[in-house]
Structures are given as C-alpha cells and as structure tokens.
Amino acid sequence: MRCTIVGAGVSGLSSGIRLLESGHDAHIVSDKFSPETVSDVAAAIWYPFLVKPAERADTWGIVTYDVLEGLCDSAPEAGVRMIDGREYLRDVVDSPPWNDEIAAFRILEDSEIPDGYVFGWEFRVPVIDMQLYMPWLKNRFEELGGTFEKGFVERLQDLEGDVVVNCVGLGAIELCNDEEVKPARGQIIFIEQDPGVGHFDQQPETLTYTIPRTNVTVLGGTAQVGDWGLEIRDEDNDLILSKVEAIWPDLDRSKIVGGTVGLRPSRSEVRLEKEEIGDTRVIHNYGHGGAGVTLSWGCADEVVSIAGARKES
Ligand SMILES: Cc1cc2nc3c(=O)[nH]c(=O)nc-3n(C[C@H](O)[C@H](O)[C@H](O)COP(=O)(O)OP(=O)(O)OC[C@H]3O[C@@H](n4cnc5c(N)ncnc54)[C@H](O)[C@@H]3O)c2cc1C
User: Fold this and answer.
1) What pLDDT sits at residue 49?
2) How far, in Å, CA of 10 to CA of 186, rounded?
3) Domains defined along the chain, listed by start
4) CA of 117 to the centre of ligand 1 (A)
5) Contact in structure between 144 and 17 (CB atoms under 8 Å)
6) Which pLDDT score is estimated for 153?
7) Nearest CA owner, ligand 1 atom 44
8) CA-CA 20 to 30 A from 49: which of 126, 221, 245, 296?
9) What is the distance between the alpha carbons of residues 210 and 150, in angstroms, rounded to a whole number?
C-alpha cells in the first residue's frame, strides 16, 4: 500500500517506520523537519503526561516503553537511556496503572519526600535526547526506503497514495478545522548539573521537573494552554527555578547554559482514528499533548493496524 504521511515530528516518523517495516511504501510530506519541529524541543522523558484518553494512552505508552528500553542496548546512537526519577505528590493516590509494567517502581519512604508533599514514588523510565533521537528516526526511515518532500499541505484529499496518515500536531487546527487542538506552551531551562535521580511534580498546575540527559539536565516547566508565545520569558524562568529548588535544593543557578520554548499539541484526547474524506482514506494521529514521545510507538503500531485492516477490506 502507498502511504503518504503528513508531518515529520516523532509521530510522523515513527508511523512511517512502522508502515515500512510492515511492507508498505511510505512518503513524508512536511513543511518543517528536524530540528524545527515541536518534537525536537521535547524534554524528553517517558511519562504519560497531559494526555487523554487515559486507558488508550497507557496501552500506547507501555508499547513505547518497551521499544525505547530496547533501544538503549540495540541502538545507543539513538540517544535513549534509562534513569531513575521520583514523583512527588500532595495527596496520597493510587499507583499509576503502568507501575507493574516498568523496569522498577516503588513507593517512597517519608524521609525521601520534600516539604510540601505527602506521598510519592520512584520509577525507572527511558529519557530520550531528542537531538540524537530525531536524526536517528529520520535515518531509520530513509534506510527502510522512506522518502521525504518539503511542502505545506492545505487539503488532505489532494494527496496521493492509498492511505494518508495525518501527523500534523498543532497543524490540525488549520488542516482539519479542529478547534479541540490548542497549544500548551512549555518553557524549559538547560543546566550543566546532574541531580542524580530526576525530581518530578507532574500535576499540570504545579508542573516541575529535572530530567538528567547526557550533557545537560532539563528543568521545567510550564503548560500554558492557548498561549502561542515562543519567546523565552524571564518570569517563567524565575517560576521554574523556584519550583525546582523546592524539590531539588542543591540546584546551582550559576550552571545554567540556556533554555527554549515549545508548543505542545494538546487536545481533549489524542485523535487516532480513520476517516474517509471524499475518496481519500485518512488515518489521523495527532493531539498527543505532553506525551507524544511517550506514546509514539504504540500509536504507530495502531496506525499500521488500521492501515492493514483497510488493505484487507
Ligand atoms: C517543553 C516541552 C517538553 C516536552 N516534554 C515531553 C516529554 O518529556 N515526553 C513526551 O513524551 N513528550 C514531551 N513533549 C511533548 C512532545 O514534544 C509532543 O507531544 C510531540 O512532539 C508531538 O509530536 P508530533 O509529531 O505529533 O508533532 P510535531 O512534532 O509538532 O510535528 C508535526 C509535524 O507536522 C508538520 N505540519 C504541520 N502542519 C502541516 C501542514 N499543513 N502541512 C505539512 N506539514 C505540516 C510540522 O512541520 C511538523 O513536521 C514536550 C513538549 C514540550 C514543548
């Protein structure tokens, strides 16, 4: 089957790779490529955050976890490694549904919980260095025979192919007139200091994180829904640093080396479904909010299964 994918972020590239591995042809059309996509800005840790529907996201997430964990050994050049992180909570809650599925998970002792929090857990998950991972995905897609074309798509039904896979993220506002898609602005800071374990508070209203990558640690964050501003704001940096210091008091501000901003493609829930637009068979795969990397391989598998099901019908 000839598949045209719109979008060259993590969703489009992962979908393309899985389609090629399943024996289909894949061609990506996109107006921007790495390093200019939102995916390039992702922090990025595996963690289902700011994404719905929860049950499907957890299933996609676990598939992705296993793939990313495997890449640590099979493809070190992809920039994925496992780290331990601690999530702190202001209420006692049930463990996340994926706690039995990941490499290590335990509830924290009281002595391990910072002031202001009452509960928490330690988890072992993949951290993905997107500066390495995006080029790796691109190379893998090309090695498998995939092709790229630069272009802005105005109508999905104008594209060639037996199936069109729509991975445009925020672009769906315009391309699909989808009013449920909104930017969730994320500002982050890079620091050359290792926190040992990552420290996290991933409630949307208090969002705080320290993600140790190979060269820098990423400090966050913000999740400002409806905010299109791409400039770095001093007041957001101040807020991030004060939130981080509350859970990582050893933070040394003199080691800050930069920062950036990205707009997460947030939506009431991920849109992963098929639609007939005229004679064009479309599979939508967008609206992954703060978890596009976390869900990427699970969603890509579902794209293939929908495409495959069409082939047989
Ligand atoms: C600060 C920050 C931190 C984050 N941290 C994490 C994290 O730790 N873990 C995690 O899992 N996720 C994280 N995310 C979220 C993650 O980055 C996104 O969910 C993910 O990148 C979405 O990928 P995508 O491929 O769907 O969209 P994008 O990366 O936005 O790609 C969309 C593609 O479609 C193209 N496109 C759009 N419209 C058109 C059109 N009309 N015609 C042609 N091409 C078009 C674009 O050029 C682009 O290539 C973070 C995001 C931010 C901003």
Assistant:
1) 78
2) 17
3) 2-312 (3.40.50.720)
4) 32
5) yes
6) 98
7) 30
8) 245
9) 35
- The most distant pair of C-alpha atoms in the chain lies apart, rounded to whole Å, by 62
236-266 per-residue burial string, b: 16 or more CB within 10 A, e: under 16:
bbeebbebbebbbeebeeeebeebebbbbbb
Each residue of 250-276: pLDDT tens digit? 999 999 999 999 999 999 999 999 999
Q: What is the distance between the alpha carbons of residues 307 and 147, in angstroms, rounded to a whole number?
A: 19
Q: Which residues of the chain have pLDDT under 50?
A: 310-313
Instruction: Identify which of 297, 295, 274, 283 has the alpha carbon closest to the alpha carbon of residue 6.
Output: 283
Strand partners, 3: 26, 163
Q: Specify the pLDDT at position 309.
A: 60
Per the listing, tokens 């793939």 go with 67
Q: Which of 125, 164, 269, 288 to mutate to test the pocket of ligand 1 (most atoms within 8 A of CB)?
A: 288
Q: How far, in Å, CA of 16 to CA of 300, rounded?
A: 8
For residue 260, give the ligand 1 atom closest to its CA.
Answer: 1
Quick one: three-class SS letters along the chain?
A: CEEEEECCCHHHHHHHHHHHHCCCEEEEEECCCCCCCHHHHCCCECCCCCCCCHHHHHHHHHHHHHHHHHHHHHCHHHCEEEEEEEEEECCCCCCCCCCCCCCCEEECCHHHCCCCCCEEEEEEEEEECHHHHHHHHHHHHHHCCCEEEECCCCCHHHCCCCEEEECCHHHHHHHCCCCCCEEEEEEEEEECCCCCCEEEECCCCCCEEEEECCCCEEEECCCEECCCCCCCCHHHHHHHHHHHHHHCCCCCHHHEEEEEEEEEEECCCCEEEEEEECCEEEEEEECCHHHHHHHHHHHHHHHHHHHHHHHHC
The tokens of 184 are what? 């969730």
pLDDT for 193 equals 97
Contact 13 CB / ligand 1 (< 6 Å): no
**pTM for the complete prediction?**
0.96
